Amino acid sequence: MKKTMIFLALASISLAVTGPARADGDHADRLDKRGDRIEHRLDERGDRIERRLDRRGDRIEHRLDRAARRAAENGKPGLARYLDRRGDRIDNRLDRRGDRINHRLDRRGDRINHRLDRAGRHAAKAH
Asked: Count of CB atoms within 10 A of residue 91's CB?
């Protein structure tokens, strides 16, 4: 009798702390929605970073192209070719960096979403 009373007291304390039990499908849905939100947020962040680096590369390339045109007008074709190639290299490097960061964040979002989906399916099966 005492053991039963102690168990019931502990169970009621545990329920008061954790709240009522959720339905299995509700828990799986919450985890799925959470994974989708995280994946979307990381995708957007990667896209913003990629766009920012692309714009930065375009600005640098444009500035170096203008300098190359001025050098060509002043009779310095070697400097003009150098500046033009340098602008292209910088722009390409920043484009690749933006693509790499965006891809990495997309993969991270996919992994998190997949992990939470799996946890939701596991929680639904467990009950």
From this structure: 21
**Main-chain dihedrals φ then ψ at residue 68, nearest 5 degrees:** -65, -40
Torsion sign, CA atoms 116, 125, 12, 7: negative
63 lies in which domain range? 53-127
Distances 71 to 4, 12, 85, 89, 117 between C-alpha atoms, Å: 92, 82, 13, 19, 59
Look at the block and give the residue holding tokens 């992994």. Answer: 111
Q: How far is 102 from 7, CA to CA, in rounded Å? A: 52
pLDDT tens track for 69-90: 999 999 999 999 999 999 999 9
Residues in the chain: 127
Total structural domains within the chain: 1
Q: What is the structure's pLDDT at 78?
A: 96
On whether the pTM is more than 0.70, the answer is no
C-alpha distances in Å from residue 48, one per residue of 7, 43, 101, 102: 54, 9, 10, 8
